[in-house]
Amino acid sequence: MPHTYNILNHIPADVACLDDYSRYAREHLPDSFWHYINGAGADGISKQRNRQCFADIVLKPLVLSGVQLPDTTCSLFSQQPFKEHHSQPFMLAPVAYQKLCHPDGEIATAQAASAQDVAMVLSTLSSQPLKDVAAFKGAAAQWFQLYIQVEPSATFDLIKKAELAGYSALVITVDALINGLRNAEQRSGFCLPEHISAINIADYQQPTAQSLAQCLAQAPSWQTIKEIKAQTKLPIILKGILSVADALKAQQLGVAGIVVSNHGGRVLDTVASPIEQIAAIRHAVGDDFTLLLDSGIRRGSDIFKALALGANSVLIGRPLMYSLASAGPLGVAHMIRILKDELAFTMAMCGCNNLAEITQDCLQNK
After folding, report:
1. Does any domain span residue 253?
2. Residue 124: phi, psi to the nearest 5?
3. Which of 81, 182, 257, 273 sits a CA distance of 20 to 30 A from 288?
4. Single pTM value for the model
5. How many domains does the chain have?
6. Is residue 8 part of a domain?
7. Mean pLDDT of successive 10-residue segments in the chain (366 residues)?
8. 263 catalytic, yes or no?
9. CA 318 to chain centre
10. CA dihedral 7, 5, 143, 266 (to 10 degrees)
């Protein structure tokens, strides 16, 4: 039996920042849904660390700078023909099963992204067909996130479908070989309702519950990435890299970029926060390699800090679900608008006319 959605058709007057949407989402979502979306791996230490590390970075304001309206446009991928121009240095992350929050799921998100001219990444575990979501693409890019399937033929079939639907990049998640130890989700008894499924992989035979040894035996490797790279003309971004060593391997393999990420703290707990790692990774890979970052971003000032430390752009995950559950596509569009305004405000207060001027000099003691 489908659950009853409790979605507002207006923006609540007391929503002033992204965290305000989490409060409404907690009220509107069934308890088990909330714990699936908001939950983290094990004790949630990495999830908390993600936020604390942003809070610990101190901005250096610059007064009387004469900045007018800052230019937030950015380019991703230095090599042609992949180069893309984006209106903002952030995009919507690939979040699974968005029908948990809204009956239109990922289509509602695509509508909001299109209205705000912001790119989005669609999850393999989308609850709407990838072709249907692509139909709502606006001027901004749509990328497809890939979970590598056990059968190579299924993986290549998914990639082909994404290419035909017009997705312009392939984001391969590499840090979630198995689900994390999501204890809060387990305690709540979460399971997908019958009317929600990973529709894009429904035609492929899915393995039943397996032992850790079986999962690891079937896990992809760097060789798998090489094979995928040989099968697609799309630029490949590897999502879930936290170390300089892995970043250099990815660069040497010839992928177009990486997402420095700890999966929002949802897989292995007590790992480093991406914002702690981004500067060292940027130093190692050089200026021309595309670096994105996710995990813990809740403010426009967080985006600014990530850019100052070396990111080209960032991904927004849980706030997407909070706003979608609260006020549907209107809420997602409003959430995006808040980030745009906060980023522009932070740039102006720090004397930055454009993204190129956001450097480590804008931060204290960095």
Report:
1. yes
2. -50, -35
3. 273
4. 0.96
5. 1
6. no
7. 85 97 97 96 96 98 93 90 94 98 98 98 98 97 97 97 98 87 89 96 78 80 97 97 98 97 96 98 97 98 98 98 98 98 98 98 86
8. yes
9. 9
10. 100
